[in-house]
Amino acid sequence: MAIKKILMMTKNDKTVPLSDWANVVCSFENLNEKIYGFKDVCVDGGETLFLADILKYFDKEIAFEVVGSGDEEYALRMASLASDIGVNYFLGTQYSGRVHERLDSSGVEYFPFLGRAVGHPSKLEGSLDEMEEQSAMLEKNGVAGVNVLAYRHDNPEDIIDLVKRISQKGLLKTIVAGGINSPERENFVKEQIRPWGYTMGGALFDKKVQSCEPFISTQHSHPQLSR
Predict the structure, then answer these.
(1) Is 194 helix (H, G, I), strand (E, B) or coil?
(2) Predicted confidence band at 23 (pLDDT cuts at 50, 70, 90)?
(3) What CATH superfamily is the domain 4-226?
(4) Cα(184)–Cα(186) distance, integer angstroms
């Protein structure tokens, strides 16, 4: 199965301004990637609906990543929003049974953080033993997969090895998120880690990877943005 590249309309863990979406939308027809995403930071409910509508118009799948708060009530509100606007994948938050139930009821795949995401931009904390126990719990609870900030941990090599083992086991989909900021690292993720998917955001807008060229080169707006 091909590894999914999830193109995030984000930079520094924040959704980019809507004005920057014009360049991205114009290049959709030239890109093969199927999944696009945005985060809960710097975007409100109305804007998320607008962004989701644009992506659906171009027959894209939608990933919504929540990094704004570790509070369960906030996570539940974001899960309800994700369900209402029709996203495909809900990334982030610490695992919550209530969030899981809400997403399951609307067919949204849940990818909670493995470990603890703290601060903004998010950093991954937690020991390898804790994450191994957590992954076993998440397998048992039947989530779709895990969102792993492998390159934002103090010991990324250990986390990468864990992601490899989880991926090979095949019971949880794995997404490597954050810090994939060079062609070399992207190739390593695809060829050595081989997760279900990985996210790219800031590196695309900073022109640090080859795949960003059609993503940011078009300078014309699309009529769909003028509603």
Answers:
(1) coil
(2) low
(3) Aldolase class I (3.20.20.70)
(4) 5
